[in-house]
């Protein structure tokens, strides 16, 4: 029997736990050429800011072993264009939309939350407080528990009460559990983890940094073990807080690994660059993995790696 | 405008294509793949993005290649030309008949073709010329006359010299080492060819410094020029935002546009060549950039001394730097096309 893949995100029931990761699917239109955007759990948009933003200079990308560095710098047309153009399109296609927001100040985040709350059709807000491609390290709110809490509190205060607010965390911290606790205390309904890690590559032909922005965010399967560790630690400390897990998921089996660590939803990022239909494929593969293991509901495996009985309950044939 | 809305007829497809042949052509490789849908939808100037390294590859980014040719045999084949200079392209060069490749295409905005039978000059640098031969066929169908001007570092790196000579009204070749044609670079000969061919429109594909110079010369002669740019790409389909360059729109506003979906073909004079590799200070959304119409009073609510000020200052410092670290040398090596 086909496993039941439905998961809850706030008041919304998602048909399955597979989403796009913010910044890897724009606002869904381009991917609609390759997949049915209404068939995956949700589209998480590229982070929306108040004003249009041109981003960082090129080169913005460098391939690394099993990963890539990017320094896009949050290029985007701003909230007005998102509300006028992208959101209506997503709704017309029947996609569930998680709006990712980013700002330079606490007030900007709060205003974005208010603007999105006035618009119909948003399923949740993901607060990107962890983009590494900003001018000042001090702007990475997710590196400090007090700063992170300030943003989450302001967003929670201005967001419609029925809109779940997820805080997106950076793995570039000493104690991610402390940041997670701080965000949850400030009112976060859930957590998204992990954002990219700050990295750097040097071109040995030009003898110069490979990225114009010098540093960039490292993503891809190279960082998956870090994602698994972060999700596992936070799930152990805060077992009731829903987690959107992301970090190098390329296959259904990778998605299952993050679910077992404690994520209840899975976002697919860099894999989309490699394969524009990755979300649909990973969904199919996850379905197969669960079927093979005799799992009837995907919710049964969430955090199962923490539970000795749960782990035994999964019979896997090799 | 948005490809997503026309996906059924003309949009790109993702296919698993079977390799028909891989052959060495002088300094390059040409690979032919059975990809029926892509072949049927192709228009000259468009490209494919290919996954490299097989299953579980450590190379995550697709490689983008201009389509050189499509043929109806086997239900439709596409051919592209590449230089096996990096890990991904070496892997491609090792493919054999009956291997399969995951490719998306046809991608990007094709070359616009003139309505009238005019005199067209096609300028190619290195294997950039590969993109021009399907265009030449299309132009000849429209009864345009076609002249070629091809150049490279050496004779073995001029792609398609023979075909150009055989099929077009004239073909001028330049090489830096003088091993084929005239010693020099294509722009040394551009003026002369324009005069002799009475060129009405120029099409160019090749390294960015060449496109920049071709555009400058075309402007001097007041000839419209269409260029296909080579920018490093990660996805090829418009989601990654890595392949952007500053382009002036018809409204006079400069935007950082994606060369994969808004290009790769642009009108030469629309590209701000001097600022490629930077964010021009007046670009849409650049630090300190303000919309002409302010959106209500909430902007004024930002407390003075909020992080917006230092952010703008530091970005201004950055734009004083030279356009590309390492100068023009690194423009010969573009991950999207070469590694």
Which characteristics define this entry?
heterodimer; A: 318 residues; alpha/beta; TIM Barrel; 4-stranded antiparallel β-sheet; 16 strands; 19% strand; globular; B: 339 residues; Elongation Factor Tu (Ef-tu), domain 3; Rossmann fold; 6-stranded antiparallel barrel; 8 helices; disordered C terminus
Please render the helix and strand layout as text.
The complex is a heterodimer of chains A (318) and B (339).
Chain A: E1 7-9, E2 12-14, E3 18-20, E4 43-44, E5 61-64, E6 67-70, H1 79-92, E7 97-101, H2 106-118, E8 122-128, H3 145-158, E9 165-168, H4 176-185, E10 190-193, E11 197-200, E12 202-203, E13 208-209, E14 215-219, H5 224-237, E15 243-246, H6 252-261, E16 265-268, H7 270-274, H8 278-292, H9 308-313
Helix pairs in contact in A: 2-3, 3-4, 4-5, 5-6, 6-8
Chain B: E1 13-25, E2 28-34, H1 36-41, E3 47-50, E4 63-71, E5 77-82, H2 87-93, E6 100-107, E7 119-125, H3 132-141, E8 145-152, H4 161-167, E9 170-175, E10 182-183, H5 186-197, E11 201-205, H6 208-220, E12 225-228, E13 244-248, E14 254-258, E15 265-267, H7 308-319, H8 335-338
Parallel strand pairs in B: 7-8, 7-11, 8-9, 9-10, 11-12
Antiparallel strand pairs in B: 1-2, 1-6, 2-5, 3-4, 3-6, 4-5, 12-15, 13-14
Helix pairs in contact in B: 5-6
Describe, in plain words, how this protein is organized in 3D:
The complex is a heterodimer of chains A (318) and B (339). Chain A has helices spanning 79-92, 106-118, 145-158, 176-185, 224-237, 252-261, 270-274, 278-292, 308-313, and strands spanning 7-9, 12-14, 18-20, 43-44, 61-64, 67-70, 97-101, 122-128, 165-168, 190-193, 197-200, 202-203, 208-209, 215-219, 243-246, 265-268. Helices cover 32% and strands 19% of the residues of chain A. Chain A is built from nine helices and 16 strands. With 318 residues, chain A is α/β, with parallel strands linked by helices. An eight-stranded parallel beta sheet of chain A has the order 3-16-15-10-9-8-7-4. In chain A, strands 5-6-14-11 form a four-stranded antiparallel beta sheet, with no helix packed on it. Chain A has a single domain (7-54, 73-200, 220-313), classed as Aldolase class I (TIM Barrel, Alpha-Beta Barrel), CATH 3.20.20. The radius of gyration of chain A is 18 Å and the shape is globular. Chain B is α/β, with parallel strands linked by helices and 339 residues long. Chain B folds into three domains: 3-107, Translation factors (Elongation Factor Tu (Ef-tu), domain 3), CATH 2.40.30.10; 119-230, Nucleotide-binding domain of ferredoxin-NADP reductase (FNR) module (Rossmann fold, 3-Layer(aba) Sandwich), CATH 3.40.50.80; 232-261 and 268-289, no CATH class. Chain B is built from eight helices and 15 strands. In chain B, the strands form three sheets. Chain B has a seven-stranded mixed beta sheet with strand order 10-9-8-7-11-12-15. A six-stranded antiparallel β-barrel of chain B has the order 1-2-5-4-3-6. Chain B is globular. Chain B starts with 12 loop residues before the first strand and ends with a helix. The model of chain B is unreliable at 1-8 and 294-339 (pLDDT under 50). The chains are: A alpha/beta (318), B alpha/beta (339). At the A-B interface, strand 5, strand 6, helix 2, strand 13 and helix 7 of A face helix 7 of B.
């Amino acid at each position: 029997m086909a496993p039941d893949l439905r998961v809850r995100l706030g008041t919304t029931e998602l048909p399955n736990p597979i989403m796009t990761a913010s910044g890897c699917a724009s606002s869904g239109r381009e991917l609609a050429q390759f997949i049915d955007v209404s068939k995956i759990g949700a589209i998480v948009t590229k982070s929306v800011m108040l004003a249009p933003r041109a981003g960082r200079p090129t080169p913005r990308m460098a391939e690394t072993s099993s990963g890539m560095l990017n320094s896009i710098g949050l290029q985007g047309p701003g909230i007005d264009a998102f509300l006028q153009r992208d959101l209506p399109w997503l709704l017309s296609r029947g996609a569930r939309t998680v709006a990712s927001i980013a700002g330079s100040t606490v007030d900007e985040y709060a205003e974005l939350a208010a603007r999105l709350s006035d618009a119909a059709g948003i399923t949740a807000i993901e607060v990107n407080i962890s983009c590494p491609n900003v001018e000042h390290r001090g702007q990475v709110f997710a590196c400090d528990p007090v700063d992170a809490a300030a943003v989450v509190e302001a967003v929670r205060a201005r967001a419609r009460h029925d809109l779940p607010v997820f805080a997106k965390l950076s793995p570039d911290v000493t104690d991610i559990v402390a940041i997670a606790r701080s965000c949850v205390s400030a009112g976060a309904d859930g957590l998204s983890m992990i954002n990219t890690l700050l990295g750097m590559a040097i071109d040995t032909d030009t003898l110069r940094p490979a990225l114009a922005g010098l540093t960039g965010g490292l993503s891809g399967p190279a960082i998956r073990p870090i994602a698994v560790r972060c999700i596992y630690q936070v799930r152990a400390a805060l077992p009731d807080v829903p987690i959107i897990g992301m970090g190098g998921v390329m296959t259904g089996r990778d998605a299952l690994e993050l679910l077992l660590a404690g994520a209840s939803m899975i976002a697919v990022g860099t894999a989309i660059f490699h394969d524009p239909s990755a979300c649909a494929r990973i969904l199919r593969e996850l379905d197969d993995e669960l079927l093979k293991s005799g799992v009837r509901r995907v919710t049964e495996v969430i955090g199962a790696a923490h539970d000795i009985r749960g782990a035994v309950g999964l019979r896997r044939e090799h | 405008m948005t490809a997503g809305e026309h996906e059924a007829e003309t949009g790109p497809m993702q296919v698993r294509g079977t390799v028909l042949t891989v052959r060495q052509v002088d300094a390059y490789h040409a690979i032919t793949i059975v990809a029926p849908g892509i072949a049927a939808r192709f228009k000259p100037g468009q490209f494919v993005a290919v996954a490299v390294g097989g299953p579980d590859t450590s190379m995550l980014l697709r490689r983008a290649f201009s389509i050189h040719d499509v043929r109806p045999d086997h239900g439709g084949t596409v051919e592209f030309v590449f230089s096996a200079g990096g890990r991904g392209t070496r892997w491609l060069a090792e493919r054999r008949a009956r291997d399969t490749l995951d490719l998306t295409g046809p991608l990007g905005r094709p070359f616009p073709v003139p309505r009238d039978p005019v005199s067209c000059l096609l300028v190619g640098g290195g294997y950039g010329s590969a993109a021009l031969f399907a265009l030449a066929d299309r132009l000849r169908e429209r009864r345009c006359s076609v002249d070629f001007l091809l150049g490279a570092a050496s004779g073995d790196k001029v792609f398609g010299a023979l075909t150009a000579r055989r099929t077009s009204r004239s073909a001028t070749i330049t090489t830096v080492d003088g091993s084929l044609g005239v010693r020099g670079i294509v722009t040394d000969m551009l003026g002369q060819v324009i005069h002799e061919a009475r060129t009405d429109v120029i099409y160019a594909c090749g390294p960015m410094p060449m496109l920049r110079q071709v555009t400058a010369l075309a402007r001097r002669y007041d000839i419209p020029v269409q260029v296909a740019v080579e920018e490093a790409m990660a996805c090829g389909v418009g989601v990654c935002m890595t392949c952007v360059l500053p382009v002036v729109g018809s409204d006079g506003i400069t935007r950082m546009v994606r060369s994969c979906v808004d290009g790769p073909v642009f009108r030469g004079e629309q590209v701000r060549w001097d600022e490629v590799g930077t964010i021009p200070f007046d670009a849409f959304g650049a630090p300190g950039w303000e919309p002409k119409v302010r959106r209500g009073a909430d902007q004024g609510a930002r407390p003075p001394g909020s992080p917006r000020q230092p952010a703008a200052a530091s970005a201004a410092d950055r734009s004083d730097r030279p356009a590309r670290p390492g100068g023009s040398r690194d423009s010969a090596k573009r991950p999207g096309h070469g590694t």
